[in-house]
Structure formats: structure tokens, C-alpha cells
Amino acid sequence: MLRNILLFNIGLRNALLHSKRLPTKQLRSFVKYSTASERKRFYKTVSLSQCDDGLYEINLDKAKLKTPGGKLLTLPNEALAIAVATEWDAQQDILKFYTMHMTTLCNTAIDNPTLRDEDQMISAALKYLETDTVCYRVEEPYGLVDLQMNEWEPVLQWIESRYNVTIGSSSSILGPEIPEATKDTFRQHLKSYNYWSLTGLEYVINQLKSVVLALATIDRHVSVEKAVLLSRLEEEYQIRQWGNVEWAHDYDLYELRARTAAGALFVQLSSETSSVKRKLLQD
């Protein structure tokens, strides 16, 4: 567990640029935390401490880490605390807050800047079904038509079989008409997530613009890399046809991967109950 967290955060440290996707109202709350100005590193050591109630805190030298809203950053389990502490420890002379996606998600879960409860978060997530990336199909060019059918249809069939629902696809700009029974099934499934996990799930959905791809990633049916590629299928097709702007494509791709991976890992770790029986950041 610790090795995976450390390796993951090395990847986060190398992804330094912002995503170019336009944020929704909910996503702006994440961006508020992730695009803070850079500042010099003001601490030498990062450590964890466990409270009497079992929650974990992050210590920067002797100071306790707080959220942008001024609340003490307390984490529900050791695994998630290690992930956040690793992000802070990985920072160099200049703190790049926009690379610290796990910290951003924890801040959002604690401060709840949009003041929503779990039912409201579930309803917001389900709205994406109506405009889900993999449900919209073009009618031309034929190369892209075939690509969408070959790449998207298997994932769509998987989720319909996995949850015993009907979603379908459409070439209409309005998307397919989602049956109420399908929405009810997903609503019941999402109610099994705690508030923190819903925060991570919504983050992944926002990145991929897809409930289908988000659930496929979290269920480990597809990898993060594959999910990101599928979410950008039309863009990748156009790049293959016409080329890409030098550097811009790769930066955008790596950042989207980093954000999606952070969200998926956050969902997993926010449901983690076991402790990591190893020294934090062991040399």
C-alpha cells in the first residue's frame, strides 16, 4: 500500500500543468484550492500524528496543516494521511499547490465549499448520464464513427451488464434518454459511498465528463490511461488527422491522467479502514 502511494505521488510531482477543461460550478471549488499561487517551502519535515478519536493529522515541522477554510486537516485513516503527507514531502524549494491533487480533494471534503450533502452530490453526478461522453456518437467522419463504436461500445456494454441497466447511445446533441430505472439503480449504488468517496468520484466524473468511464476506472475495469484516452477519443482522432500543437497536447494529457488517478485513488483510500504498519516516508 505505502509503496503504491509513494509511486503514485512521484507521478503527481511530475505533472505540473493545469488541465484545460472548463470547470463546472462544482469543479470550481476544486480549482480554487489547486491553483493557489506558488510560495517558498517553509518547513523541513512532514510527519503524521493520530488523534484520540482515531483521525490523523499532518504536521509540517511542529505546525498542524489546515485547510484553506481554516479548519484542521484531519483524515479518516492512515493510508490517506500518508498520501497527503507524501505530496507535501515531495515539494521542492517552491510549493506548487496545483500539483497536490490529494490535498485538494481532502480540503474540498472537509471545507465543503458548495455546502452540499450526499444526496445533492449523487444527483449532480447522475446528471452527467444525460450527456455522458461515451453515449454521444457522431454520424461522420466514418473513421471516427468506427472508432467510437470499437472503443466506446465495449465499455458501455460492460456497465450495462455490470449494473443490469439500460443506457444506450445517441447522435443527438441532447444525448440518449436515460430510463428512470437506470437512474434509480445508480442512485442506490452511489448511496453506498461515503461523503469523502463521493467527493473523489465526482472529481473523476468531472475530469472524464463521464459517469460510465469514472465507474469503469474505480471498478478497475479500465486503467486510468485507458479511461483518459477514451474520454479524449475525438480529440485524439483529430490529432492523428491534423497533428497537434507542440507540447500542449502532452501536458494536457499528463495533467488529466494525474487528476484522474488522484481521484480514483482518493475514492479507494477514503474507504480504507486498515492502518499502514510501516514508518512514514521511510528512507
From TrEMBL:
GO BP, one example? mitochondrial proton-transporting ATP synthase complex assembly
* Classification via InterPro entries: ATP12_ATP_synth-F1-assembly, ATP12_ATP_synth-F1-assembly_N, ATP12_ortho_dom_sf
Q: Which UniProt keywords apply?
A: Chaperone, Mitochondrion, Transit peptide
Residues in the signal sequence: none
Keyword match Oxidoreductase = no
Q: Where in the cell is it found?
A: Mitochondrion
The answer to whether UniProt assigns keyword Nucleotidyltransferase to this entry is no
Write one Pfam family the protein is assigned to: ATP12
Q: Which residues form a coiled coil?
A: none
Q: What is its main location?
A: mitochondrion
**One Gene Ontology cellular component annotation held by this UniProt entry:** mitochondrion
Q: What family does this chain come from, according to its entry?
A: Belongs to the ATP12 family.
Stated name of the protein: ATP synthase mitochondrial F1 complex assembly factor 2
Protein source organism: Neogobius melanostomus
